[in-house]
Structure formats: C-alpha cells, structure tokens
Specification:
The structure holds 2 protein chains of 2 kinds. By secondary structure, chain A is of the alpha/beta class. Chain A folds into 2 domains: 2-58 and 119-287, Rossmann fold; 64-113, Alpha-Beta Plaits (2-Layer Sandwich). Helices cover 34% and strands 27% of the residues of chain A. Chain A is elongated, with a radius of gyration of 22 Å. By secondary structure, chain B is an alpha/beta fold. Chain B folds into 2 domains: 2-47 and 128-296, 3-Layer(aba) Sandwich (Rossmann fold), CATH 3.40.50; 58-119, Alpha-Beta Plaits. Helices cover 37% and strands 24% of the residues of chain B. Chain B is built from 10 helices and 11 strands. Chain B has helices at residues 15-26, 43-46, 74-78, 103-107, 146-164, 179-185, 199-213, 230-243, 256-262, 274-296, and strands at 2-7, 30-34, 52-64, 86-87, 90-91, 113-127, 133-139, 168-172, 190-195, 219-223, 246-250. In chain B, the strands form 2 sheets. A 9-stranded mixed β-sheet of chain B has the order 3-6-7-2-8-1-9-10-11, sandwiched between helices. The chains are: A alpha/beta, B alpha/beta.
Chain lengths: 288, 297
C-alpha cells in the first residue's frame, strides 16, 4: 500500500501529516516513511531514529576522453539539452543540464564519451520503533530533483514488501518532481488550507491527479481560518474530505520545535484517527 | 532597473502575501513577475485583467508513426526513462515519462519517430490594481521545463520595465532549490528571503541561502510568524549575522494576512495596522539596500 502526501501549495502541512500519520499508524502497523521533497526535506526534523545506512546517489554524466575524440561534433548534435558542446578543439560537458539519456555517449563513433557516475545527493535509512524512515537530500546546485526521487522510490520498492504501509512525503507544486513522486502511488492525499491560495492550488493538484488517473482524497489543514470555498469545491467535484485538522496556534508552536502534534492536541488526534482508519481500510482491502 | 527576487526555500512562509504587499507599496514603479509558475497565486491578490496571453512552447517529446514502425524495439531498448512501453503489440510513447532527449529518434532505422514541440503552458501580461503591470504564467499540470517558463516571465517583465521606464521588478519565486529557483535568481540584484522560526524554516533557509551564495547577491531576510518560537528566531538571527544577510524585520503570527487574502486583498489595503507599518519600513530598507549597492558599483 503506497500513499503519497502531496499539495499544490507549499507549507500546507505535508510534513506535519506525513510524520504524525507515520507515528500514529506505527502503533499497530509496520510503516515506511520516505521523504521525497529532496530539495527541502523536513520529515527528518520530526522523526528521529537510528541511522541504518547512508549512501551517495549518483547520476550518469558523459566524461570526455580527449585522446579518443575525433572532434566530429556528433555529441553536440544529438544532445537536446545543450549539455554538451564542441568549442574549438574542446568538448565541454555541463552536468547540471544533462538528463543522463546516454545518447551522446552511445552514439559517439570514437567511444570517447563514457558515462561516469556523478554525485547528486544522498539517501539515509533510519530505523525506529515500527518505522523505517528514508530520507533523500539533493546536493545544493543540483537542479534536477526527478532522478533522485526515482532512485528513492526504487530503494523503497526493493527493500519493503506489500505488507507495509508506505507513506511518501512529496514536494509541492504540480510539475515534474510531483509527478515522479506520486505516479506509482495507490492513493494520493492532497492536503490544503481553506484559503483562496489553498483552493487555487488544490484545483491545480486535482487537475494533475486526474490527468495521472490517480485515486486521491483531500485533507483540510488549519480548518477554521479562511472560508468554506474548499469544502464547497470538494462537494461539487465529488472529492472525499478525509479529515479537517484544526487551526490552532499551539500546533504551529509544536511544529516549530520539531515535535509531534497528536500526543498533545486531542482535537488533532481525533482527525488523524479518521485518516488512519481510512488508510487501514484500504490496506485490508488491498491485501485481500 | 533593479530586480528584487523573493524566495523562501520552504513553502507557506508568507512569501506571496508579502511580495504582493510590496507591489502595492511600490505602486507604478514596480512591475511584478510571478515566477512560482507551477502554483502561481499572486493574481488572487493583485486582480489582473489578463490583458494579453500567449501559449508557451518548450522542449520536445517523441511521437511514433505506427505506419512506418517495423517493431524492431531499438527505441525502447535505448530509452533510459521507460517511456516506450509495448501496448497491444505496438511501441507507444508514454508522454509523462518522455524526457525529450531524442535518443529514440536518432536510433530509429525507419525514421518513424519525430520529436514534437510541447505546449507547456501559457504566460500573461496584465494590468493590476496598483496601476502597474504584472507578468505571470500557468504551467500545464505535470509539464516539464518550469525553469524555461520562469526565464520567459522574467524576460517579459524586463522588457516592459525598460519600455515604460519602471525602476523595479519584483519577482515572486517558487519554493525549493531546483531549476525554477535557479532560474528566478539569475540576473537579480537583491534577494529577499522570507522565513519562519520553525526547525523546517531554518533548515530550508540555510539550504536556499547556500544556493543564493553562488550568485553573489546582497540579501535581506524577513522572519515571519516570529512570535511562534523565540528560540529559533535567535538561531536564525545568528545565521543571518554569520552570513552577512541584512535582517529586514520580524513580522508576528497574525491571521490578518489570511483574512485579507479571503477578500482578495493585501494587508496594505486592510486599514492601518502594526504589520502595515512594518511592511512599509521593510520596503524602505529594501530601497536603501539597492541604492547602497548602486553607490558601491
């Protein structure tokens, strides 16, 4: 059972929900939580555990062998990303533009462009009671989050079976990193705020999920501020609202210190229970 | 003409609400560029008239002509992105996975593959309620190339500013540290970082500033919701000092921002308040920072 927690707008509570839900479910289930917001991963500030493994993650980049090169310029011609150019008697590679498609390398008649790994980030695997926590972090200056998100999914798929509940804390937005983070999920939980910004970005996220043909549902965070437009919208569109997490300054304070919310705020816990029940029902159905 | 870019690393710190307030304060001397193209919200506060719009094409994706395809499978073999599955005994392109690298196009022995330019969104120029103009965009959901669309929005904003002799471009950036953020930063004169005093806010601020440093830009920081956690505020201030970032101001945790937003307004239009005064002072400080820079150079 794979559940991605996503949102159009940033700062609506993806990490709060992911980390609290992971801990809450872990009292009865074995849970995996993966932080796929590799540009700005935050779940690790709320989940502490014992470091099990740390590994560098690489992407493949062409490496120019001057001695072998005939300077034919084919590499530059086949690269659609302007990541490799011929400048006089030099071939220059721009790793941040390279998408690792291998075309320049494999189509090089002189075999002068072998692909070599270049570090783009790291993955850490922590273990704590009932939870395996996987965190990937992109190196600063690396512009493409997608390859690291893809490798993190691969890691989770390779290490954990279907008996686990797997939660994926996704990046904000609706562009390529979000697609990569959510495309293999069985369920996407979209978390939003009942404000004009929240509603606007929720609509974009819903559009994206429909395009991906994903099963999705909504959680409203900071319920009590703003207005009822998000509820009305979900009603009109037939979108299920799983829970309404309360607006409470104490929640913002707990979050700011890196603490879990539900052990201290009963109203939050009651709503979290609804999400957990929903997830557990799906889990039972999917394992049948 | 000077360009101010507002970013935050973390989402939801109040970046857009604060940027829109500056747009109100700068009035006709500010062109706004909403560069958070995959979740653009600025228009909800500035009431654009969507005066001009144009489709935006960028990047390519493969298409297979089934009439020419001999099903040799070479294309699927070389594709690193699992974008050419076999469905009903036919090789087809999975558009979501296709990166547009064109390797399949290069290798196809029958020229059955063409690379087709992609419509990835739309961009707009609008008149806004400040009496000035705004350039904004809408990335198609799931589209690639958001960095290119950001560059387009910024370039158009520059053109308008030049043509109309407008002094400032105010750029609302996107969260994160990836390609759209890099694209928002290029060519900027000043970076304004909006953060909040939470463990995440500080963590994301440190990361986005690492990136900002590579651009060698003067930077200022606003600590929003400052009364939520004085201890982290202290840590943020130490960080700002160490990195020589100007501390512009602290703003309180205040739901007035949200209330104003509900009416499509900025806090500047919502009557006299302490926050309004603070924002006016920040705007003055930003102006001074840029004037100092001009004198230095």
């Amino acid at each position: 059972m794979k559940i991605a927690i996503a949102s159009g707008k940033g700062g609506t509570g993806k990490t709060t929900l992911s980390t609290n839900l992971a801990h809450f479910l872990a009292t009865s289930e074995r849970v995996v939580l993966a932080d796929l917001d590799v540009e700005e991963p935050n779940s690790g500030l709320f989940i502490r555990g014992e470091l099990q493994l740390r590994e560098d993650k690489f992407k493949q980049i062409p490496h120019w062998l001057k001695e072998e090169c005939s300077l034919c310029g084919n590499c530059q011609k086949v690269c659609n990303f302007h990541a490799i150019i011929k400048l006089g008697k030099q071939i220059m590679v721009f790793p941040e533009l390279c998408h690792s498609c291998f075309a320049c390398s494999e189509l090089c008649p002189a075999k002068a462009l072998p692909m070599l790994p270049q570090k783009m980030g790291e993955l850490k695997h922590f273990i704590l009671a009932g939870i395996d926590f996987i965190e990937s972090k992109l190196d600063i200056g690396q512009e493409q989050a997608v390859p690291l998100i893809a490798q993190t999914w691969e890691y989770v798929d390779a290490h954990f079976g279907n008996d686990r509940i797997k939660l994926f804390d996704s990046p904000p937005g609706t562009s390529c990193p979000v697609i990569e983070a959510t495309k293999n999920a069985d369920l996407v939980i979209l978390i939003t705020e009942p404000t004009p910004f929240g509603l606007h970005d929720l609509k974009l996220a819903v559009e994206t999920m429909r395009e991906l043909k994903k099963n999705f549902a909504v959680v409203i965070n900071r319920f009590g501020i703003g207005n009822d437009d998000v509820i009305d919208y979900c009603g009109q569109e037939g979108i299920e609202i799983l829970a309404k997490l309360p607006n409470d300054r104490r929640i913002a304070e707990l979050y700011s210190r890196g603490e879990l919310i539900y052990p201290k705020i009963p109203a939050f816990k009651a709503e979290l229970q609804k999400i957990a029940d929903y997830v557990l029902r799906l889990q039972i159905r999917s394992s049948k | 003409m000077k360009e101010i870019v507002v970013i935050s690393g973390k989402g939801g710190t109040g970046k857009t609400s604060i940027t829109a307030s500056f747009a109100l304060l700068g009035e006709k001397n500010v062109i706004v560029a909403d560069c958070d193209v995959d979740a653009a919200d600025m228009h909800l506060l500035l009431q654009p008239d969507w005066h001009f719009s144009e489709e935006f094409f960028s990047g390519v994706a493969a298409e297979i002509d089934q009439g020419k395809c001999i099903k040799c499978g070479k294309c699927a073999n070389v594709c690193r992105f699992h974008a050419i599955p076999v469905i009903d005994k036919k090789y087809v392109i999975n558009n979501l996975n296709c990166e547009g690298c064109g390797y399949c196009y290069q290798i196809c022995p029958r020229d059955a593959i063409t690379m087709v330019e992609q419509n990835v969104g739309k961009w707009f120029v609008s008149n806004i309620k400040t009496g000035s103009k705004m350039v904004h965009a809408r990335l198609r959901s799931g589209a690639d190339n958001s960095g290119k669309l950001v560059a387009k929005v910024k370039n158009e904003a520059r053109k308008i500013a030049e043509k109309n002799g407008v002094g400032w471009i105010l750029v609302d950036g996107s969260p994160g540290i990836g390609c759209p953020v890099v694209s928002s930063l290029s060519g900027a004169d000043l970076v304004v970082l909006v953060t909040e005093p939470s463990v995440s806010g500080l963590h994301d601020l440190e990361r986005v500033y690492e990136l900002t440093k590579k651009f060698h830009l003067p930077s200022g920081c606003i600590i929003n919701k400052a009364d939520i956690n004085p201890e982290v505020v202290g840590k943020i201030k130490t960080f700002l000092q160490k990195e020589n970032i100007t501390h512009l101001a602290d703003l309180p945790y205040d739901e007035t921002f949200t209330k104003a937003m509900t009416f499509g307004k900025t806090i500047i239009e919502s009557g006299e308040s302490e926050i309004k005064n603070t924002l006016q002072q920040i705007w003055k400080k930003i102006n001074n920072l840029l004037t100092d820079e001009r004198e230095k150079s």
